[in-house]
Amino acid sequence: MKVRRDIYQAIADPTRRAIITLIALQAMTPNALAENFHITRQAISKHLQILTECALVKQEQQGREIYYSLEVQKLKEIDQWLSQFRKIWETRFNQLDKVLSNMKKQKR
Predict the structure, then answer these.
(1) CB 44 within 8 A of CB 19
(2) How do beta strands 57-62 and 65-70 pair?
(3) DSSP conformation letters of 28-91
(4) 86: CB partners within 8 A, 6+ apart
(5) Burial of 55 from C-beta contacts in 10 A (0-12 / 13-18 / 19+)
(6) Residue range 43-60, pLDDT digits in tens
(7) E strand or H helix at 19, and its extent?
(8) Could you say which DSSP state residue 108 is in?
(9) DSSP assigned state of 68
(10) Closest CA to 9 of 58, 62, 56
(11) pTM, two decimal places
């Protein structure tokens, strides 16, 4: 399948992020997913199509139903990209902790 979008475009939409959260817990059909939103089943299917194109979710046919589940490995790509920023934030928070700790000691 040709990927038209990248995973960051896919997760930019709040409905798609909510779908990812729901199917992270268990595989779900489009109808079951639609029950959690105030949008049509067709709109849910469109979001699932985009998530599938980006390989964030996979489909599995079970009888007449199609279940969608999360491709956890693809989420690791996002986590790896964010980790570079996480290191920056942690360094800054550690520096702030030291400053606050020193200020607290000086007040005593």
Answers:
(1) yes
(2) antiparallel
(3) B-HHHHHTTSSS-HHHHHHHHHHHHHTTSEEEEEETTEEEEEE-HHHHHHHHHHHHHHHHHHHH
(4) none
(5) middle
(6) 999 999 999 999 999 999
(7) helix 14-25
(8) -
(9) E
(10) 56
(11) 0.78
